[in-house]
Amino acid sequence: MTDKRARKAFTGWHMTAILVAFFGTVVAVNFTMAGLAMSTFGGKVVENSYVASQQYNKLLARAEAQDRLGWVPSITRDRDRRVRIDIRKDGKPLAGLRVGAAASHPLGRTPPLALRFVAAEDGGWRSVEPLAEGRQRLDITIARGADEARYRIDLQ
Fold first, then answer.
1. 61 lies in a domain?
2. b/e per residue 30-45 (b: at least 16 CB within 10 A)
3. Which of 4, 26, 59, 67 is 20 to 30 A (C-alpha) from 91?
4. Structure confidence by residue, pLDDT tens digits, 57-82
């Protein structure tokens, strides 16, 4: 049985079309991914990397001192978009704390907001101001006497 349709020859034009389509797709995907990456991350981690490197040992010493405190934070956002902070040591809530925080969008899409906290009924702390919608970066400072702990957390 013979095929009544004539087979077309594979020519250089076919190969050219395949190569252009393949590399065109690769280039389009690369440009799309590069554009998305540039729109979500500004590329700057610290203002001045040399100054940051000079303060590295101080930051390590402060982190070790904070670890020795043994404070365990629980930081969440409630239904009203207010920040809820519970600090425990050895499973017990800590009293006599000074709590403060600054909230900002990780990419600067909303203006920074200083948060004030009030003591909650069950021993934790609750922010007076609600957070903006979306992801927010919190820089939290908790102090008791001369002891101080700093936490950075992203809340969704």
1. no
2. eeeeeeeeeeeeeeee
3. 59
4. 888 888 888 888 888 888 888 888 88
Helix (H) or strand (E) holding 102: strand 98-104
Residue for token digits 């909230």? Answer: 103
Contact between 141 and 150 under an 8 Å Cβ cutoff? The reply is yes
Q: Do 73 and 135 lie in a common domain?
A: yes
Q: Could you tell me what percent of the chain has a pLDDT over 90?
A: 15
Beta carbons of 150 and 139 less than 8 angstroms apart: yes
- With respect to residue 48, please indicate whether it lies within any of the assigned structural domains: no
Residue 28 lies in a domain: yes
84, 90 contact by CB (below 8 A): no
pLDDT score recorded for residue 123: 73
